[in-house]
Amino acid sequence: MENTTSKPTFAELIQNSETPVLVDFYADWCQPCHMLKPILHEVGQNMEGQVKIIKIDVDRNPAASAKYQIRSIPTMMLFHKGQVKWRQSGVVPAHHIEQVIREAMAQ
Q1: Which end of the chain is more exposed for a tag (fewer CB within 10 A), N or C?
Q2: CATH for 70
């Protein structure tokens, strides 16, 4: 019997979403990653319903990290309609992330 309530996979989420998907590649031991967490929370609140934010632990998901050539963390990638629209490593202010998302939605 097929489970119809399963969560979409990472690939399904970034390929099939009409809403931009911001992916945060992080690790629990990464101090800058902890600094980014409240910033992403702010972006999520300010842009509720306009963006999906997901976190990918690079230690638990080495295949995704390798596929997207994650060399430093935190690295954020913005996907819209299955395409990479933006990629940035390091800690970035919320207003800059929000601007990037708005520009991606306008394309």
Answers
A1: N
A2: 3.40.30.10
